[in-house]
Design goal:
Blueprint lengths: L1 H11 L1 H19 L7 H4 L2 H8 L22 H16 L5 H30 L2 H13 L3 H5 L4 H4 L1 H12 L6 H17 L3 H14 L3 H27 L4 H12 L11 H8 L5 H11 L5 H16 L12 H18 L3 H27 L5 H8 L8 E6 L18 E6 L12 E5 L2 E4 L16 E5 L4 H9 L6 E6 L3 H9 L8 E5 L5
Parallel strand pairs: 1-2, 1-5, 2-4
Antiparallel strand pairs: 3-4, 5-7, 6-7
Helix pairs in contact: 2-6, 2-7, 4-5, 6-7, 6-10, 6-18, 7-18, 10-11, 11-13, 12-13, 12-17, 15-16, 16-18
Length: about 525
């Protein structure tokens, strides 16, 4: 009887169950999926914001910390929000970095619930309850959604605001001017998080123009302009004494270095949109997305233009398209559903749909569990957390197996330290022993360990972190020639997901860390 009651409740309250699932998955990711995914979601947000809260400037973004002041092209809205959070936590004497990041992830988890809610509401308004529940379930439990939702990725954080704006423009048949303005304000906030969303906003404006909603188009433009002026213009004016300085720096930088990052694969974003939902479901959704263009142009055109822009721009990275994955999912499900139901071969398409969805969930569930509970960049994070409650450390990062050495997330040490980098050098004997390169006030690259024979004890490392166990004994023996009292302390292992990524693509460099103390008296 109890079992029957549970089934009956689920059947009668599917949306509540889906929303509860979304909350559970996101809270699980917030608690268990520690670490960070890539450079940008930590060093360009967390590290910078915490340094501001501590009275520093980790990346030297602020003009009073630059010798030749010039904006580097970073919106201060999102990182500034983190600055206020960290400043508040400092005031409350919450200084444990892991607790701080748990709070940050929980806030992101709650904010990301707007994606599920508005995804459901939009689909329910323009389609059916069945499709709305399907979209809500996918946005709740697709393998990548929970873990991406708790990360500091501006590409993902902007999505709820875009969906919210679309919902305002869709929910009523007759839209009031103030609703158009509110939608514009939200689109402006999304722009302040991720500059590229201006392409999406332009698509919204064009859609309104095609629908002959001229007043609505200008009202959205007004709301967007006011939002951007207040958030971007005033903040940049306060910092740089001129509005939109960082926006100008962003455009200049990205145009100048447009060919220096990512890959120029013309099919990359189509592959991303398709493969994240697996095949064949991803292909059906891709077909449905393009099939829906005319009927749902208010959603299609902004999404399509956003994808097209990133497809045409040389700098391509997979995460760039994640901003519009919820919109793609909405139109993909609706478009395919309408095609299948209106086709003469309805039975055949229904079987294909059923198989595709079942196959997706068969692949999705184990992947979802793996990623939701994954500790990403564990070795880097835990190696720094090892120094929490210890005095500020000078660390030598030794990775002479490779030509590049990873930056260390000193945020997790609870204080800013100094890092020496020792990479692989092709001809070290041709390099002067004292030769080094000061890459920032917190980082110096050296090319031979003998460099430390000519510097003061105060400038010598307290610890040596050896990346990877390849040639470890040889590397440690080499270092002992410089630091005779070098002593092993601990090994920091990688997480399961890190190890898997490492095997699939060595570029990830998710190695275990071996921490040695130099025992240099200072």
């Amino acid at each position: 009887m109890e079992k029957f009651g549970i089934k009956t409740y689920i059947a009668q309250n599917p949306l509540k169950i889906i929303l509860l699932l979304a909350v559970i998955l996101r809270l699980s990711a917030a608690v268990f999926s520690k670490g960070y995914m890539m450079h940008d979601d930590h060093f360009l947000v967390v590290e910078a914001a915490q340094s501001w809260a501590d009275g520093g400037d980790y990346n030297n973004w602020l003009p009073w910390n630059q010798s030749n002041p010039s904006p580097e092209g970073h919106s201060f809205f999102y990182v500034g929000t983190h600055f206020l959070i960290f400043k508040s936590l400092n005031f409350l004497h919450i200084d444990n970095p892991q607790i701080k990041m748990l709070i940050i992830r929980l806030l992101h988890a709650l904010f990301s619930m707007l994606t599920v809610w508005f995804g459901y509401k939009i689909t329910r308004k323009i389609s059916s309850e069945k499709n709305a529940l399907t979209v809500a379930l996918i946005l709740s439990a697709a393998w990548f959604m929970p873990v991406f939702s708790v990360r500091n990725l501006v590409e993902v954080v902007a999505s709820p605001l875009l969906l919210w704006a679309l919902w305002i423009l869709i929910k009523d048949d007759k839209i009031k001017i103030q609703s158009f303005i509110l939608a514009g304000l939200l689109l402006g906030l999304a722009f302040s998080i991720r500059f590229q969303t201006i392409i999406f906003t332009g698509g919204v404006g064009l859609s309104l123009l095609f629908a002959r909603q001229i007043k609505g188009m200008f009202s959205v433009a007004l709301g967007t302009a006011v939002s951007i002026l207040l958030v971007q213009g005033l903040v940049d004016f306060f910092i740089w004494s001129r509005p939109f300085a960082e926006l100008g720096g962003y455009i200049t930088y990205n145009w100048q270095y447009k060919n220096d990052y990512g890959v120029n694969n013309q099919f990359m974003y189509i592959l991303v949109l398709t493969l994240v939902f697996s095949v064949p479901l991803g292909l059906l959704m891709l077909f449905g997305f393009f099939k829906s263009w005319k009927k749902y142009i208010l959603i299609f055109l902004p999404t399509f233009l956003f994808i097209l822009f990133h497809n045409l721009f040389p700098n391509k990275q997979e995460r760039f398209v994640f901003t519009v994955i919820p919109m793609f999912a909405i139109l993909g499900i609706i478009g395919w559903s309408e095609f299948a139901e209106n086709s003469e071969n309805k039975t055949r398409w229904a079987k294909l749909t059923s198989f595709s969805i079942k196959f997706f969930w068969i692949l999705n569930i184990p992947t979802l569990i793996l990623f939701t509970f994954s500790y990403q960049k564990r070795a880097r994070v835990e190696s720094m957390y090892y120094f929490y409650n210890k005095k500020p450390a000078v660390i030598l990062s030794e990775d002479s197996n490779r030509t590049n050495v990873n930056m260390l997330p000193f945020f997790y040490a609870g204080k800013q330290g100094f890092q020496y980098l020792l990479p692989q050098v092709e001809n070290p004997d041709t390099i002067a022993e004292s030769y080094c390169e000061h890459t920032s006030k917190f980082v110096t690259k050296i090319y031979k360990p003998e460099y430390f024979l000519s510097v003061s004890k105060d400038s010598q490392p307290d610890y040596v972190l050896f990346y990877d166990d390849k040639n470890l004994e040889v590397r440690v023996s080499r270092m002992r020639k410089i630091f005779p009292d070098l002593k092993y302390e601990t090994r920091i292992k990688s997480s399961l997901v890190d190890a898997l990524f490492q095997k699939m693509n060595p570029v990830n460099k998710n190695f275990p860390f071996y921490i040695y103390k130099t025992n240099v008296e200072k």
